[in-house]
Design a protein that fits this description.
The complex is a heterodimer of chains A (about 110) and B (about 120).
Chain A: E1 4-7, E2 10-14, E3 19-25, E4 31-37, E5 44-49, E6 55-58, E7 61-65, E8 71-76, E9 85-92, E10 103-104, E11 108-113
Parallel strand pairs in A: 2-11
Antiparallel strand pairs in A: 1-3, 3-8, 4-5, 4-9, 6-7, 7-8, 9-10, 9-11
Chain B: E1 5-7, E2 10-13, E3 19-24, E4 31-37, E5 43-50, E6 53-56, E7 65-68, E8 75-79, E9 88-95, E10 105-106, E11 110-114
Classes of the chains: A mainly beta (about 110), B mainly beta (about 120).
């Protein structure tokens, strides 16, 4: 089946540092999404990307949809303690028989030291 | 407007028992997806339903697992004769429509533990 390779697996950073994580796939997708999951909760959507090459920001978060449609990255600038959590990339191919079901990466565990 | 609701939040079952997980989608949403998350892994798609119809169950094991989304009431994910390997967090998500531009909103999940 389709798989997303997400890296790094975990990150330990100091408050104020910038963070970068990425996702790659062997398949082409037409949508890339980035989610954050807090302990004991479901994923919450951070950024959605719908067009190859698209660069989108949401506050301190910036994400890009790779031009090949096989990769995406997420940057977090000036990290703060509440950024702690697990970040997942996800992708889908809406239309046809995929019905928008999401394929998730393995997650990046982010720890921010004050 | 309440978000996606799931209950119970935690469920403990002994091997061989049945587990019933409920999901009430957001108001106005008629599309429900179920995902399973094993410890330290990403979510894996199981099944996609619209009201009263299973549209895609390609991610759901063929035996012991079933899902429904009746005309009235919540969507139910049912696991019969649970085994230890069924222990996981089960999330449902709902959306207004299908496809890329219809954001899936996730519930808080049901954490199933099989003893």
């Amino acid at each position: 089946g389709q798989q997303l390779n997400q890296s790094p697996q975990s990150m330990f950073i100091q408050e104020g540092e910038d963070v970068s994580m990425n996702c790659t796939s062997s398949s082409i997708f037409n949508t890339w999404l980035w989610y954050k999951q807090d302990p004991g909760e479901g994923p919450v959507l951070l950024i959605a990307l719908y067009k190859a090459g698209e660069l989108t920001s949401n506050g301190r978060l910036t994400a890009q949809f790779g031009i090949t449609r096989k990769d995406s990255f997420l940057n977090i600038s000036a990290s703060i303690p509440s950024d702690v959590g697990i970040y997942f990339c996800a992708s889908s191919n809406a239309g046809g028989t995929s019905y928008g079901k999401l394929t998730f990466g393995q997650g990046t565990i982010l720890t921010v030291h004050p | 407007n309440a978000g996606v609701m799931q209950n119970p939040r935690h469920l403990v079952r002994r091997r061989g028992q049945e587990a019933r997980l409920r999901c009430s989608p957001m108001k106005g949403h008629s599309h429900v997806y179920w995902y399973r998350q094993l410890p330290e892994e990403g979510l894996k798609f199981m099944v996609y339903l619209q009201k009263e119809n299973i549209i895609d169950e390609s991610g759901m094991p063929k035996e012991r697992f079933s899902a429904e989304f009746p005309k009235e009431g919540p969507s139910i994910l049912r696991i019969q004769q649970v085994v230890r390997g069924d222990s996981a967090a089960y999330f449902c998500a709902s959306s207004h429509g299908q496809g890329a531009y219809n954001e899936q909103f996730f519930g808080p999940g049901t954490r199933l533990t099989v003893l």
